[in-house]
Structures are given as C-alpha cells and as structure tokens.
Amino acid sequence: MSKHSTLLTSAALAVFALASCGGDPDSPGIEYFPDMYRSPAVEAYVDYGQDPYVAEMPDGTYDSDYADSLVLKQRMTQQARKPVQGTIAFSSDASKAAFNFPYTYANTPEDYERAGLEVKCPLPMSQENVDKGKVIYDKMCKHCHGEKGAGDGTVVNVAGYPQPGAYNGPLKTLPEGKIFHSLTYGKNIGMGSHASQLNKEERWLVTRYVQYLQNDGKLSASAPVAVADTTATPVN
Ligand code: HEC
To answer: Could you tell me the sign of the dihedral formed by the alpha carbons of 186, 177, 145, 136, in that order?
Structure first.
C-alpha cells in the first residue's frame, strides 16, 4: 500500500471514529431503513386506503396544513363499525335471504313451545339437503347422538355422558322448530348451544338430517317441501 493511500485510509477512519462519538448522545446515528426501527402506529379499523394525501383547499389551492388536518381527522375516524341495530344483511341470492333475518324467539320455555308451532325450515326436505346435513351431523353431533341418532355416541357409551333420547324414539315427533330452537340455545345441561359453531343455514341443514333420522333414515313424505319464503318470515 502506498504511503499516500495509507494516509487517506487513516484519515477516513479518524473521521468515521470521530463522527460516531461526537454529536447528540441520544441520536441513534445513521440508520438504514428507519421504517424498520420505527414502524408507523396504525390504528385498527381505520381505512388508510382513503387517506386524503393530496387535499385541495376549497378554493382549489393546495395547503399542506389543511392536508395534514384532513389526514389527522381521517386517522382518528373509525371506519369499520357494527351495523346499526335492526339492520338486516342483504343477500343478492334470494335463497339465502331467509337466513339473514334475526331469530326472534327468546331462550324461554314459552318461546320453545311457540317455536315448535311456528318456526318452519326454509329449506326443502330433499336428498341434497339431507346429505349436506349429514356432513355436519357426522362432525358435530354423532359422537354424542350416535350414528343413527339412537343416543349411543362414543361420548355417551365410553365417557358416560348423559344419554340423549333417540331421534326415532322419544324425540320422534319433535318438530323442526324445536330442533332448531334447541340447536340455537341448547337444551338443559346436556345439549350445548351450537349457534356460534353453525350458522342458521347449517343449523337448518342438520335439522333436516335429524328429521331424516327421526323417520328411520328415509325422506319424509309429510315434511314440507316448500321453497323458502324469503321476505316475510322473520323467524329464522
Ligand atoms: C356433548 C354431547 C352432544 C352433542 C355434541 C350434541 N348433542 Fe344434542 N343432545 C345432547 C343431550 C345430552 C341431549 C338431551 C338434552 C335434554 O333433553 O336434557 C341432546 C338433545 C338434542 C335434541 C333434542 C332437543 C329437544 O328440544 O328436546 C336435538 C334435536 C339434538 N340434541 C340435536 C343435536 C344436533 C343436531 C347436534 C349437532 C349439531 C347435537 N345435538 C350435538 C348431547 C349432545
């Protein structure tokens, strides 16, 4: 190495060393990619995609303070909110619309009886719906209620869980409204509510499968085959 370049290197090192020691002791020094150290604080539920980064004053001129004030306002405004009470979701698919209505029956013995009389399944009793219901039943009910709904699932047989009545025995005449009601709220201490695991459509599908088991594994001729009344039935 020449004398010249040794001198230059030492000078550069000296400058570097001095630069890293002096100055503000609180300064973190040179940072690569400062975004990585200080990530921007992001509020949940605020729509950053809508930031008015370029904001014109009402008279058409641009003012950065005005733009900042808009950004600040935007960032303090929560965008994602719960729907207003009483709002009913819209489904463009009319066959799904019936499931958007709230279930208006309360978890009381009186409403259980009423549900048995008034609440009707919006899905037809068809092989297709029974098959879909079976998929749910096999995953979520069979271990207690048993393969054919005799109340002899493994949880009952092996673990000694309270035995539910057989669907084609004591529960044979249980109407669909009560099946749905019990699926929604649960029944006594043995049967838990399934409202958080199964949406209304799924609860009705599995209700159809329970009816199929009530009928000894045959499609019931007497079961209603009506197509959903999608507008006037605020019960499911
Ligand atoms: C942890 C065990 C268990 C699971 C899981 C379970 N059940 Fe039950 N179920 C019971 C018991 C126990 C009863 C009896 C409750 C009573 O009447 O005291 C019962 C009762 C019922 C009844 C009769 C309700 C009434 O109004 O008399 C229906 C219908 C029913 N279950 C359907 C289902 C369906 C459908 C599923 C799956 C989505 C399911 N159950 C999952 C244990 C269970």
So the answer is: negative
Tens digits of per-residue pLDDT, 89-148?
888 888 888 899 889 999 999 999 999 999 999 999 999 999 999 999 999 999 999 999
CA of 107 to the centre of ligand 1 (A): 16
List ligand 1's pocket residues with C-beta within 6 A. 137, 140-141, 144-145, 155, 161-162, 164, 171, 174, 178-179, 182-183, 187-188, 190-191, 194, 206, 210
Q: How many CB atoms lie within 10 A of CB 200?
A: 20
Residue nearest to atom 5 of ligand 1 (CA): 141
Question: What is the CB-side half-sphere exposure of residue 10 using CA atoms within 13 A?
Answer: 6
Block residue for tokens 């009707």: 120
Look up residue 221 and give its two tokens.
Answer: 């001729």
Which residues, in sequence order, are CB contacts of 166 under 8 Å at separation 6+? Answer: 149, 150, 151, 172
Do 130 and 217 meet the contact criterion of CB atoms below 8 Å apart? no
Distance 128 CA to ligand 1 centre (A): 23
